[in-house]
Amino acid sequence: MEQTWFFLMILGFATAMVFLTIDMAIVGAQEAQRRITSWQGGGMFIINGFLWIVYSLVFCLLSGATVQYISPFAVGSGIPEVKSILSGLHLRYYLSFRALTAKIIGLVCAIGGGLYVGREGPYVVISAALANALSKFGPFRRIRQDQQLRFQVLSAACAAGVATTFGAPVGGVLFSIEVTSTYYLVQNLWKGFFTSVSAALFVAIIGDRGLSALFNTRFSESQYSGYTAFESRELVAFAWIGVIFGGLGALFIQTVARWNSFKKQYKILSTDRYGQIIAVSVATSIVTLTNFVPMYKGQNGIISDLFTDQPLPEWSQPNIFVNLSFYIVISFILTAMSITLPIPAGLYTPVFLIGAASGRLVGEVIAALVPSWSVVPGAYAVVGAAAFSAGVTRTLSTSVIVFELTGQLSHMLPVLISVLLATAVGNIFGPNVYDRLLQGKGLPYLPGFNAERAYKKTAADIMDTNLYFIARECTYLEINQLLASSTHSSFPVVDTTNNMILLGSVYRLYLENLLESREREYQSRLLMTPEMSPKIRGDKIKATEDRDVFLDVPIQLENKPPHFDPCPFQVVNQTSLSKLHFMFSMLGPAFAFVTTSGRLEGVITRNEMMKRCWEYQQNN
Known about the structure:
6% strand, 620 residues, 4-stranded mixed β-sheet
């Protein structure tokens, strides 16, 4: 227990240090761009514009190059891959040191180059990769060897990644649970909270953020006359924001999916990685270069503007409604294109920005149409950011993240109403954005399951009866035939081929060692003459004896650990599909044997379980 506490504290510290390093690098890159493009004088606008575009282009190309030459597994958000890993899929290279390096460098270059990408997804993977690297050290080797404990630590690392991004330890834990888990053991909750609080605390102490909220709001102290928090009649507007923004979130997911499909149809778009990056980078640079709206402020600066309860003079030239509408449309398009580029790219922050701008626009419109209401447009921006983010990610924890980001609970009820409605409306149209990206990448995972849709299905309906098994009393020849016919890592062991009573499972490596030992003996006897081996003469074994005859010798398999598992996962043939789904989700076995009164009848693999769950989900 003490070792786990110490490991999680070190993980929180490491995550915080990497976050601060990345943050300083991004700020430095953005400041350097502003200094390089700050030439004064006649005709300097063209030169500054050219330098601005070239600077952004170089950084974006570097981001693509890190993925190509360091690790191709650093592409994208990373949350879908972590979800697959935590569901039991072995993705060897996604949490490697090379992927970690590429993720860090690529993220700095992508955001430093001005692309509309976020940090939360890459930070989740970075933190998980740090946990994977730390577990390789001697004192923490037990964590790596225990698969369940390793999954718990990786889940805690995901929470720390979100916590450092937003300074929201509570929301980070809840968000990581919602996007990476189908079921969650409450007894593991302390690991996630301890790690995320440690990471957020180290960021607050070492960094310049302090202990205050990242975007501190004071709506309850607003200058608007008669303002208390919000009027009861405004709840209708907040509810409609939830409904509409939930639909817009589903539209965003569909846009991303359609854009991915469109790129796959044309070879030049799917294979020319640098061409994609150049096109999106130049378009983004041109948009941010113009002073039509203050997009040059960066993500944090724009959020601070939108969340304020004061007027926005910089957004009011020529008209605040036109500027906000322009920003929403451009951000929607550029975000959908940027997060599908072959670079490290998160999506939560850009989506959060789109929702904040949309909410601010609604608030400004209501304030203009109904001046008698004590409307604070900044509060609508907060509600809009939470609602649109929930519509895209389908996470209720978005509301908690918003509370921690703003440091205020005055609009707790409107935020909760809008988030609940946005999530409900979004679920009508399909899966969340992370599951959609996961499907697009072809990564298997166990989807959520509605027991009512397949309540009559049992283990007997989905099990594979084409079994590869071995009797405890067998021959070397039978072992050889079994290994040659299957690539499975373990095999069920039965008492006899007639009774088929399941005794346990034996690992492939053990059988290979037995066969290899017998093979070596066979090869050595071929080289020996009868004069050199009296024992052979006594056993009447000829040097030219057929190999199969030599292997056709009985052997009894040892039923002791570590090569023998006396209690593998097994279920009876009438076990319901919902129970199977719960078992595979919570315990993560690679397979489960199906028995009837102890007799082995079939096997259900994790891949088959995933396939059937997807089939039932699509058919219904």
